[in-house]
């Protein structure tokens, strides 16, 4: 019995020894494999001899982004760089390159890059020749993963940008009041990258203000205003596009039960930059107005001329402004207008504080209702990634 136990003990010790041997044998291999998966740190040398160690990320708008291991993300002027090499692969887009809507294979070189003597040298991983581009002629440098992702056609639920804002107020006193407001602004541009020609854009907007004031022995006072619209743009060029749109409006304060608008037209992106955009649009539409009082439902043919502007300031403060004039051709008295301006201040990560002013003008409302309806709303905003 004792000999059997001793034999089993020897076998167990032998098995443990084998396991330790295997662990110590494969651990260095695993560590080496892990080290290989991590890119080696890159050294960027400035003209004055200073060095920056980390990883090159991208180049856009005349500046390069370099992530330092100690300083974090640093913006670098490539014209002040004496020497720099990276083994990672990047796509390099010239500033003057005009890309069409077709395939761009072969038009944009990609491979490892080196910077020296105010020039960027691209070394492809295949048998293609090395290409050299002057730093002053650079448009964008994109890492290969982002480059390949940009060429992929996104799904219907991908690439949406914008934000959602919500605010509320509750008062319990002699009078009880409840009010809330909601704003949703979503837009999806395909492609979303500035170095690729625009193909299409889809936008959706929704705003709602609702409130009640109650007091014993008095009728309930109500405010109910909402606006919803959607638009699809198809680009002919990088700035000119055709559009189709639909919108719905309800304004209890102006006696408007429901206004439906369907139409199409053309747009022009006057200004397109990383920090600001300006669009001008015009359309011809069918409009149906239904009022709460005895005024008859109207069917109109009108046009909508719209100006939309957005600007991103320092510290991620965003301003959005829109103005629209709607002349009616079949009944000249029934024209209307719309204007809004909103600003969002970041508070914590993607959450911020949002405030909006919205003015709706209806020239021919039912008797007893004002032509103007002005809203001032505030709330908490969340910005989509």
Would you write up a description of this structure?
There is one protein chain. The chain is mostly beta strands and 385 residues long. The chain is 11% helix and 59% strand. It has two domains: 42-151, no CATH class; 161-383, Porin (Beta Barrel), CATH 2.40.160.40. It has two helices and 21 strands. The strands form two sheets. The protein has a twelve-stranded antiparallel barrel with strand order 10-11-12-13-14-15-16-17-18-19-20-21. Strands 1, 2, 3, 4, 5, 6, 7, 8 and 9 form a nine-stranded antiparallel β-sheet that branches. The model is unreliable at 1-10 and 15-36 (pLDDT under 50).
CATH superfamily of the largest domain: monomeric porin ompg
Number of domains: 2
The percent of residues in helical segments reads 10-25%
- CATH structural class of the largest domain: Mainly Beta
* Annotated CATH topology of the largest domain: Porin
| Overall average pLDDT | 84
**What proportion of the residues form beta strands (DSSP E)?**
over 45%
User: What distance lies between the first and last C-alpha atoms, to the nearest angstrom?
Assistant: 70 Å
Task: Give the structural class.
Answer: mainly beta
Poorly predicted regions are: 1-10, 15-36
Architecture of the largest domain, CATH level 2?
A: Beta Barrel
Shape type: elongated
Strand order of the largest sheet: 10-11-12-13-14-15-16-17-18-19-20-21
């Amino acid at each position: 019995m004792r000999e059997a136990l001793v034999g089993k003990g020897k076998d167990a010790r032998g098995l443990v020894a084998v396991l330790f041997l295997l662990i110590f044998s494969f651990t260095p291999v695993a560590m080496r494999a892990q080290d290989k998966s991590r890119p080696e740190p890159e050294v960027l040398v400035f003209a004055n001899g200073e060095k920056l160690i980390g990883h090159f990320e991208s180049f856009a708008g005349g500046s390069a982004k370099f992530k330092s291991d100690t300083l974090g993300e640093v913006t670098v002027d490539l014209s002040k760089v004496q020497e720099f090499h990276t083994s990672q692969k990047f796509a390099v887009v010239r500033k003057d390159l005009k890309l069409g809507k077709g395939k761009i294979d072969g038009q944009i070189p990609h491979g490892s890059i080196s910077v020296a003597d105010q020039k960027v040298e691209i070394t492809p991983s295949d048998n293609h020749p090395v290409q050299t581009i002057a730093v002053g002629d650079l448009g964008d440098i994109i890492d290969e993963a982002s480059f390949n992702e940009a060429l992929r056609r996104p799904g219907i639920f991908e690439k949406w940008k914008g934000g959602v804002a919500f605010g509320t107020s509750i008062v319990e006193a002699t009078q009880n009041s409840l009010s809330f407001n909601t704003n949703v602004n979503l837009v999806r541009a395909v492609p979303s990258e500035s170095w690729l020609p625009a193909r299409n854009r889809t936008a959706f907007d929704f705003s709602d203000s609702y409130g009640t004031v109650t007091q014993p022995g008095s009728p309930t006072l109500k405010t109910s205003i909402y606006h919803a619209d959607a638009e699809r743009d198809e680009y002919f060029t990088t700035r000119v596009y055709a559009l189709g749109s639909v919108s719905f409006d309800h304004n209890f304060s102006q006696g408007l039960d429901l206004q439906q608008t369907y139409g199409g037209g053309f747009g022009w992106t006057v200004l397109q930059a990383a920090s600001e955009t300006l669009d001008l649009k015009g359309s011809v539409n069918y409009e149906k107005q239904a009022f709460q009082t005895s005024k008859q439902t109207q069917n109109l043919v009108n046009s909508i001329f719209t100006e939309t502007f957005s600007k991103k300031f320092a510290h991620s403060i965003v301003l959005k402004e829109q103005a629209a004039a709607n002349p009616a051709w079949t009944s000249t008295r029934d024209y209307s207008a719309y204007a809004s301006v909103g600003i969002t201040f970041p508070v914590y990560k993607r959450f911020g504080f949002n405030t909006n002013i919205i003015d709706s003008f209806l020239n021919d409302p039912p008797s007893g209702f004002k032509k103007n309806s002005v809203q001032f709303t505030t709330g908490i905003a969340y910005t989509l990634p």
